[in-house]
Amino acid sequence: MIKRFLKKQVSTRDKKRLVENVFSLSAVQMVNYLLPLITFPYLIRVLGFERFGLIAFAQAVIQYLVIFTDYGFYLSATRAVSVNRSDPKKLSSIVAAVFVVKTILLALSAAVLVGMLLFIPKFRADWLLYVFCFGLVLENFLFPVWFFQGIENMKYIALRNGITKLFFTVMIFVFVHRPEHYLYVPLINSLGMVVSGGIGLVAVFTAFKVSLVVPTFGDIWEQVTEGWRIFVSKLAISLYTTTNTVILGLFMSNIVVGYYAAGEKIIRMVTSMFEPLFKAAYPYVAKRAATDHNAAVGQLKKVFLVSFWGSVVVFVVFLLFSGDIVRLILGAQGAGSLPIVRVLSPLLLIIPASYVLANLGLLSFRLDAQFLGIYLGGGLVNAVFLWLFIGGLSLGGVGAACASVLTEGVLLASMWQVLRSNKVRLL
User: pLDDT: is 270 or 109 the higher one?
Assistant: First the structure.
């Protein structure tokens, strides 16, 4: 099916670039699989679920600042770079404008963190953990993944991710040996990401036709308005992803958070295997949608069918061996995560489909307003489900898992209907 897609829909030059990007990102994904499969079980066994849950809660809180600093540029700036990559002057103004906005947002994020650590006792008690986790915000600021995706050159992403993951893996085994070493985990992770992020930023100005320019107010405002709806949508997405972990951390014990975070991580690791195809295809579909609606729909349909049938196979295999997989990764003490994993397993079907419909579908065809509306509605739906399953039924981690699956299902159905009403039919 992929071969037929390349033959009929893509020119020879674009075919070569697309294949190269898929393979580059596949190499990244292989690294993302293999190295965490080594460190993740090790950390669970060394730190225990209580310390693992504490780290997961801190990272979930900091994730809000990551979203704030990114401001939707991971999609809006990718689209802008993809459309204007043949115009060096425009490309330079886009890069400059994006970094001006991100610099302001980074400063505001740092101020918010300081306020949290000074005035909220729960955060002040573990202030150093949150400071170390803030490296995730710095990495998002420095590394312009949106630029490399937009120019469809994924080799830099592949190299950067590979080096970062390898550094993290080696350092974990060197420095983390007891539960008391839990602070080293976010510190090591942040150091590796910040260094690789800086290298990636330098590459933008040295390896590509991008100049250091002072953006006009119009350039900055254009990027702000382009990214606004995606930014709000990303915040809404966090209301049914990151927020589930945060709510558990606020009202449940760290051990409950640890069980939920471990189970969710297993599911997310599996669904991430489709990311190379999605990330490589997005800038191409977005570019084609601007000039040829029908051709873009055809490409989108091919990607959807490939990911759908692939996710069906993954779901069936995972369902058959979920118990063995959880025991292998988390050990005997991970039995508390097994019910959560089983409840979350439908996400193996839903998440890949949603990614195609939302990012490659709604955004490529510039249905940003609908994209925003769907995710805002999803955030509200998830809040209701969380209140029902955690507050009302006291189901803890299983309740958060139920809320996540039901919310993702509602979102997927909404995306499908919006695309059909806008003449984007995938079946």
Answer: 109
